[in-house]
Amino acid sequence: MAQDQTTRGRNQDRDRVAGGQDHEVDYEAGKMDASRKDVRDAVKSEGNSRAAVEKKLKE
Q: Which InterPro entries did the record assign (predicted)?
């Protein structure tokens, strides 16, 4: 019996930036017009919350 797919995991993932995932870092760098290093530094200093990372990159 197949389980219905939930969106819980996906919604939680959208709220976070995985600094160790190249595709996530590339996406955020392109979105915020920042370097990959800037994104990784923001994740290290602010945590993996997408809102906090984006706020840091806007500074």
A: DUF3606
